[in-house]
Amino acid sequence: MNKEDIKVLLEKVKEGEIEVDQAAASLKDLPFKDLGFAKVDNHRSLRNGFPEVIYCEGKSLDEIEGIVREMLKHDNNILASRAGKEVYQRIKKIAPEAVYHERPQMIFIEKQPLEKTKSKILVVSGGTSDIPVAEEAVITAEALGNSVERLYDVGVAGVHRLLGNLEKLNAAEVIITVAGMEGALASVVGGLVDKPVIAVPTSVGYGANFGGVSALLTMINSCASGIGVVNIDNGFGAAYLASTIILQIEKAREEG
Predict the structure, then answer these.
(1) Which of 77, 109, 141 is the last residue of a domain?
(2) Which pLDDT tens digits describe the chain residue by residue (256 residues)?
(3) Distant-in-sequence, close-in-space partners of 120: CB < 8 Å, separation ≥ 6
(4) At how many degrees (to 10) do helices 85-94 and 61-72 cross?
(5) What angle do CA 92, 97, 99 make, to 5 degrees?
(6) Where does the PurE domain lie (predicted)?
(7) Does a structural domain hold residue 23?
């Protein structure tokens, strides 16, 4: 149940179309639903603007199915991250409309049509090996209603590839950079644009990459201003942060 649903419900009470007790019954599970093994946050979209996302790693198939079944009752769009094929096959049985994105291992169930934002997020990857994390960012951002564009394999080893796409960089309101190895892509992009850059270090790289730590440290220590850094391989977190920025931009446009 989102803000518009609650407004409609309250209007019906006001007009006498439904009883107060009936409305109270509709709202009783609004804050959260306790399933025993999980407390599904039905209030998330009211607080944050976006519904809760299911992180599948570490959860059993029965637990994931139980959470999805509960979320389906509220007719919200559902996004599940870090979901293997066996998770998708299980969810598909109760939600035939579920779509699986294999490379980033994400499942999306669209119950409400998405109206895309006017503002754009650009997801930039250093190399092709970074695409799974970049795609996690893309699918997340799209599922949250954003207009998204991709710009892949433009790392600093061939910086002319990036410089040849300055028009795309300048057309976006928020840029997500995804890179492993030494993670220099974020600094280069940050030095070229006048907009927020969200950097995602990936675990791509040889031994001294330390599973993404070298890229993380490079991004944290960037001399380019306006760069925020999320955790290693956290394309989801970058997209969610970018979405909150876009949400404020869209609100400002409407008010202006």
Answers:
(1) 109
(2) 555 566 666 777 677 767 776 666 655 556 666 566 666 666 566 566 666 788 999 999 999 999 898 888 877 888 999 999 999 999 999 999 999 999 999 999 988 888 898 999 999 999 999 999 999 999 999 999 999 999 999 988 888 899 899 999 999 999 999 999 988 999 999 999 999 999 999 999 999 889 999 999 999 999 888 899 999 999 999 999 999 999 999 888 877 6
(3) 146, 147, 148, 149, 171, 172, 173, 174
(4) 40
(5) 75
(6) 119-251
(7) no
Q: Is there a single domain that holds both residue 216 and residue 104? A: no
199 & 232 share domain? yes
Total domains in the chain come to 2
Give the type of residue at 154.
V
Cα dist from 237 to 109, 124, 198, 225, whole Å: 19, 15, 10, 20
